[in-house]
Structures are given as structure tokens and as C-alpha cells.
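Reopening this ticket.

The earlier resolution said the output was attached, but the attachment link was broken on my side. Pasting everything inline this time so it's all in one place.
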Amino acid sequence: MKVLRDIAAPDLIMVDPWGIDPPRVASELRRLRASAPQTRIAVLTSDTSDSVLKASLFAGMDGHLSKSSGVATLRDALELILAGDAVFPPRAAALVAQAQQPQGPTPADLVAATADLSRREIQILGCLLAGQSNKSIARRLEITESTVKMHFKNVMRKIGAQNRTQAAVWAIQRGIGPLS
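Inline output:
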């Protein structure tokens, strides 16, 4: 952490939690996020366990990448992260849903919790929870990919999320489910 204080804010931090006791991974990642709130942070690891992936998700990391990925895949993922997207393996959506099961909100609670979101923005969140990319959301809803991105920006602004993962957690906590 000292290194972060000694230099100007970097655009991207890549971290490998290898060597950290598994119970401490989440707290260390949260501490890193708190020390660099405006910096994009990606976990690059060879650990494929759900516990490390969950730690990345719930600590607010911007990506979780496998060291076994090819160079082109890693480059593309890092470019997306630097552009403001979140990049996680497909199973991340299921882990978020599993960890954040709603406690049975009433329809009135759902309306109140999503009152500031348009019907289309709620659909976009549902597609996000289904693990769909911007391109597949655009196809499914018969809109352009740039329109999908605009809706995501509006949703993130309205709910105060910094990335798609935080938006997914917000949606699940309010009873919004995957669009099937």
C-alpha cells in the first residue's frame, strides 16, 4: 500500500492475491479499493476458486482475470477495464445471485426501490444479471449497442454504481431478477 501513496494515481492496478491467507483476501482487496477509489483494479490470478472470485466481486474490483488466459484475451480484457467496463468470468453472475438472494421484497418495495429507473433500464439490469454482453443485450432488446451503453451509464449514475458488478449487486438486493 505504501507504493500507492508514493506515486500519482495509476490508471490501472493489477493484483494477484497469491500468498494471502484465503480468509483475508476480501479484506485486503477492499483495503486496496479504498486506497485507490478512482483507479481501475483487476485481479490477475491462477486461483480459480469461487472464494477468490467472490472476494473480487464484493470488494469492488473492476475485473477478475485468469493467468491461463491468452495474451490477446488479457489485452482485450484490460482495454475493456480501462474503458470503464467490468470484466469477470461468466460464472460471476451466478455467484452474485447466489450470495445476494433477496429476502422476499414486496411488489411495493420493488416499485419504491426502482422508481427512478425506467422500464428499459430495469430490463437492461435483468439482462446484465443473465450474464449478457452489451452486444447480446442490444440484439435481444432490438436496440443499438450504443443505446445499451447509454442506458448502463444512466443506471450507474442513478444507483451510484462504479461498475457493472456493483449494478448487479444493487439489482439483486432489490429483487430484480435475470431477464429470461
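Reporter confirms the inline version is readable. The mean pLDDT is 83. Strands lie at 12-15, 40-45, 63-66.
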